[in-house]
Design goal:
Blueprint lengths: L11 E8 L10 H18 L2 E8 L2 E8 L4 H20 L11 E5 L5 H10 L23 H4 L12 H6 L6 H19 L10 H7 L6 H16 L9 H22 L3 H5 L6 H13 L4 H8 L7 H10 L7 H7 L4
Antiparallel strand pairs: 1-3, 1-4, 2-3
Length: 336
């Protein structure tokens, strides 16, 4: 089954999330939560990881995780397999505990992305259906890093406050933590009065559905890293939003090369016939050098439904001097 490529590099930050197999509980009580945090602390000691925020919630968990060394994969393999063994031993069970592969979304450090994710993770308990805003307090949810942030629980050695607080303009001091508590109280009220609590912040949809969290420059850097990962393995082995974005970027590069070879601009391309030889030549170039689907190629080049798409490609390849499409074919066929 195709899988998402793992992007690893020194200093990378990730939003990591994993669920129980068939949505079963991976934390059946306080003892399981404590055992997971012990395991998390051990992997941080082994790998040098820094955790900036976490929440454990019944059938899943969230981490805001920094890896000073490019060791996400080996560390996650250890922590999930070790916790599974300990969970199964404790409950006298066997088999898989987690649902498939964990999700690890690269995060740009800076420009508000770091603190946005920490807020999202810390607010998870109040977005649970049935949460009583009048009787429950966020700080009373023990299995989150939030109580430690505001001085109501001990801070583990592997938990770091500074980057989240500093991005919000707050110091890692008692006064700064009080300011953070006030900030979070305001965010809880936003969730409370929202008709759709999971959408109280427009950035949360990107967190839930996107393949990265950051700006355009960061996205381009990640696409280059994804390209490096794909070079060392079979392309068919991977899928996901980051792979689609990488493939589209590659296709755009080939289209730009083709337009230059044909001597036309994007504006001129839009004005050509849907099955014009120039568009067919560009389609051939993209099909030959990328994994983009025909539907994307047709839409990108403004080719309509193009029901005879394959026939036109074949006609182009067989064109001789003086035939339809020969000039366009000659212009693009040797592009490297």
């Amino acid at each position: 089954m195709p899988r998402k490529p793992r992007v690893e590099y020194a200093g990378a930050v990730y939003h990591v999330m994993s669920r129980g197999n068939r949505l079963q509980k991976i934390f059946r009580g306080d003892a399981d939560c404590a055992m997971f945090l012990t395991t998390l602390g051990e992997v941080c000691q082994r790998t040098g990881w820094r955790v900036h925020a976490y929440t454990l919630l019944g059938n899943h968990y969230h981490l805001l995780l920094e890896t000073p060394e490019p060791n996400l994969v080996v560390g996650m393999q250890w922590v999930q397999s070790t916790y599974t063994k300990r969970f199964n031993a404790r409950h006298r069970e066997r088999g898989h505990l987690f649902q498939g592969r964990y999700k690890a979304i690269p995060v740009e450090a800076g420009s508000g992305y770091f603190s946005t994710l920490a807020t999202y993770i810390h607010l998870n308990p109040v977005r649970i259906r049935g949460y009583d805003f009048d009787k429950q307090r966020l700080v009373d949810y023990a299995w989150s890093s939030y109580p430690a942030y505001v001085g109501k629980a001990a801070q583990p050695e592997w938990l770091n406050f500074h980057r989240v607080l500093s991005e919000l303009g707050m110091a890692d001091t008692p006064a700064g933590r009080r300011k953070y508590a006030g900030y979070m109280a305001g965010r809880v009220e936003e969730v409370r009065h929202s008709a759709q609590p999971w959408k109280a912040d427009e950035a949360w949809q990107r967190i839930r559905r996107g393949w990265h969290m950051g700006g355009e420059e960061f996205r381009q850097e990640l696409l280059e890293r994804v390209g490096g990962a794909l070079k060392n393995a079979r392309r068919q082995s991977f899928s996901g939003g980051e792979v689609q974005a990488h493939d589209e970027a590659c296709a755009e590069q080939w289209i730009a090369k083709g337009l230059k070879a044909l001597g036309i601009t994007e504006a001129e391309l839009a004005g050509l016939r849907m099955n014009g030889p120039e568009k067919i030549a560009l389609a051939w170039l993209v099909r030959r050098n990328t994994s983009m689907r025909t539907t994307w190629i047709k839409a990108r080049l403004g080719m309509g439904t193009a029901t005879c798409f394959a026939a036109f490609l074949k006609k182009l390849e067989e064109a001789r001097k003086g035939d339809w499409g020969h000039d366009a074919w000659r212009a693009v066929r040797s592009i490297q």
